[in-house]
Amino acid sequence: MKIKGDWERRDVWVDEKYLSPEMSQNVYNHSPDGHCWGYSGSGPSQLALSILLYHFPEKIAVKYYQCFKQDVIAGLPKGDFQIEIDLEKWLEEKTKGEI
Question: Is 34 strand, coil or helix?
Fold first, then answer.
């Protein structure tokens, strides 16, 4: 999965598709202003939840989005970014020993 963000507009795209914060805000509205990244606040929580909801069922996304925020979103630069991540592999690492 390729994820890129425009810092000035706070817009994010996943695999070239615009990622609206609205779907994730309907689950938990951490940030009425939408997505952000590069720290551990409400905007990064919204982005982490949006990304995981895009890829996983809601139950999984809700359970792991705070971990995803800490592991990935908070460490992004406070500026434009582009990353590639294997979410299946990331989740596998997080769930080791849970079953």
Answer: coil
31-71: pLDDT as tens digits:
999 999 999 999 999 999 999 999 999 999 999 999 999 99
Q: Could you tell me if residue 56 is inside a domain? A: yes
pTM, whole model, 2 decimals? Answer: 0.95
Q: What pairing do the DSSP bridges indicate for beta strands 11-14 and 2-6?
A: antiparallel
Residue type (1 letter), 86: D
Q: What is the number of structural domains in the chain?
A: 1
Helix, strand, coil content of the chain in percent (nearest 5): 45, 15, 40
- Residue type at position 32: P
> Does residue 98 form part of some domain?
no
Angle at the Cα of 1 from the Cα atoms of 18 and 34, rounded to 5 degrees = 35
d(C-alpha 73, C-alpha 78), whole Å = 10
Residue with tokens 């925020």: 69
